[in-house]
Amino acid sequence: MDGGTAPPPAARAGGDGSIRGFPPDGPDGGVRSSMLDMELIRKDREAVATALAKRLDPAEVTRALDEIGQLDRERRSLITEIDAERQRRKAEARAYAAAKRAGTEPEVSAPEAGRKQVAELESQLDEVQSRLRDRMSELPNLPAEDVVPGGKEANRVVKVFGEPPAIEKVRDHVELSRALGLVDYERGVKLGGSGFWIYTGTGARLEWALVTWFVERHLAAGYEFLLPPHLLLNSAGYAAGQFPKFYDDVYHLDADSAPRGQFLLPTSETAILGAYQDEILETAKLPLKAFAYTPCYRRESAGSHSDERGTVRGHQFNKVEIFQFTLPEQADAALEEMLAHAEGLVEALGLHYRRSLLAAGDASASMKKTLDIEVWMPSTGKYKEVSSVSWAGDYQARRAAIRYREPGGKQTRFVHTLNGSALATSRLFPAILEQFQQPDGSVLVPEVLRDRVGTDRLTPR
RNA sequence: GGAGACUUCGCCUAGUCUGGUCUAUGGCGCCGCACUGCUAAUGCGGUUGGGGUCUUAAAGCCCCUCCCGGGUUCGAAUCCCGGAGUCUCCGCCA
User: Fold this and answer.
1) Cα–Cα distance for residue pair A32/A395, rounded to 1 Å
2) 3-class DSSP state for residue A427?
3) Eight-state DSSP code of residue A106
4) pLDDT band at residue A32, thresholds of 50, 70 and 90?
């Protein structure tokens, strides 16, 4: 693993700045070439520019779109030239065969030159396409209409559930988990280094209770259960929109152990989406609902915040992810359903939380719209994200080439994808400890988990 | 890790030895039409995916696509080289 130390730029690749293993199938002017709809950029550049300006500096948007427009024109003109030359050579080969059959002496005009010319044009095209793809893949998704520009400060709280519990003397989750013997931070560091911990004893049971209870609830809601590989090919990272931007935020295998480029998944969203790469989904089966449990591996920048102690931000945490592939017109309803489903979990646990609609700059670049579910942490007086539910529109589907066939028609279209954590336990676990702590130092176990944890109350041992 | 077989348009499959009417065969599925109280069955037709071009749009036309990349050739699903994957057998290891 080359991810443990400072990010060596050379590790990005084969030395030329490209990333190992991508694109998976060589140069491609086809279905994968666009992340945003090139057609839309050509036809309604203004709309694209306006939407992008919510996330990027307008001058930068203009520059990027100018360059993309130019590359797009070059690309198409090269294709026209190449096609014409190929057509000429194909006709010649057919004439040759016909002449031979007729017994006449076939004629060929400068085969070497023709081949060379096509090869030359093709290498120009490769060059243009790879530049176009680079520029395109740097563009974020177009934010939805109701998503406002700006960063964190522009996020809007749109819903609040419950209220902060009245606790006389608040103890924080690190103190509580230590006192109750739930997490062994020191031995975790001894094993994995800084940023790792071990759930121990009842703590492990509580953690596992959360995961298995989530699984049960998702099954009941009609999601298909997936346990995917944790090590994924780089192409899957591209499809999900994590690469190239977040390439350095995940752990990579070195070139010896993984010549094609593999990384440890930072979220199982990447795996669920990647599982359906290049497929045309059966329209009747949409929306296709799936969920996956995996640990999530993230490098996270070094350094610590007082409100991110304990399990709140580590290099490995457990998360169950729900995901839907839908028809475009099903996306709104799916987003609502997923939000309600994720929030239903937090509510059943009895935790106070709020829902925020993220501003364009604070949401993940692949998403049109993101809503965070944030749970109350009494020790810091802040809300911490336990779930992020997002609608990607067709952005991820384009990158991953996941389509459906228009009913009755022959055309294929890109599906919409939505994903949401349901939930990340590493934030939920501390919230449970803090919100349900009792004056005597014990912690009440949420009712829905009691059977699985084997007790109603966590007490110092 | 070793040896062999294999990878064709959603799925199955013909074609590969012997390069050219392969501009890819047939079946299943799917779509449309016909017939029939309904369904089923039957008949006829359509159905790889992508890019370019033209167009209000559709149709049309052109190019690419027989696992991927390269080579030979006037011409490659077919021949050669490299890679990926699947299966069978052997070895090794939880």
Assistant:
1) 11
2) helix
3) P
4) low
Report which of A374, A319, A307 is spatially closest to residue A346, judged by C-alpha positions.
A374
Percentage of residues in chain A with pLDDT exceeding 90? 61
Cβ of residue A92 lies below 7 Å from strand B: yes
> Is pTM beyond 0.95 here?
no
Write the single-letter amino acid at A358.
Answer: L
Token pair belonging to A344: 């239903």
| Strand B nucleotides within a 7 Å radius of protein CB atoms | 10, 20, 23, 31-32, 47, 49-53, 59, 62-64, 68-71, 73-75, 84
| CA A209, A215, A220, A221 torsion-angle sign | positive
Q: Is the dihedral of CA A362, A364, A370, A373 positive or negative?
A: negative
Report ipTM for this prediction: 0.87
Closest CA to A6 of A305, A248, A234, A316: A248
Rounded CA–C1' distance between A216 and B92, in angstroms: 39
The mean pLDDT of A245-263, rounded to a whole number, is 83
- Distance measured from the CA of protein residue A354 to the C1' of nucleotide B17, in angstroms: 70
A258 touches strand B (CB under 7 A): no
Q: Read off the pLDDT of residues A53-90 as tens digits, 9 standing for 90 and up.
A: 999 999 999 999 999 999 999 999 999 999 999 988 88
Note the pLDDT of residue A18: 53
User: What is the predicted pLDDT for the residue at A255?
Assistant: 76
Residue nearest to nucleotide B29 (CA to C1'): A282
pLDDT digits (tens, 9 = 90+) for A266-311: 999 999 999 998 888 888 888 999 999 999 999 987 666 667 788 8
Instruction: Enter the tokens of residue A275.
Output: 């599982």
Tokens for A276, please give them.
């359906």
Q: What is the DSSP letter of A35?
A: S
Domain A31-138 belongs to what architecture? Orthogonal Bundle (1.10)
CA A400 from centroid of its chain's CA atoms: 11
Please give the backbone phi and psi of residue A149, each rounded to the nearest 5 degrees, phi first: -70, 170
pLDDT digits (tens, 9 = 90+) for A147-196: 999 999 999 999 999 999 999 899 999 999 999 999 999 999 999 988 99
Tokens for A47?
A: 């709309």
The superfamily CATH assigns to domain A152-230+265-458 is Bira Bifunctional Protein; Domain 2 (3.30.930.10)
Phi (first) and psi of residue A14, to 5 degrees: -80, 25
A96 C-beta less than 7 Å away from strand B: yes
**Rounded Cα–Cα distance for residues A162 and A348 (Å):** 12
Domain ranges of chain A: 31-138, 152-230+265-458
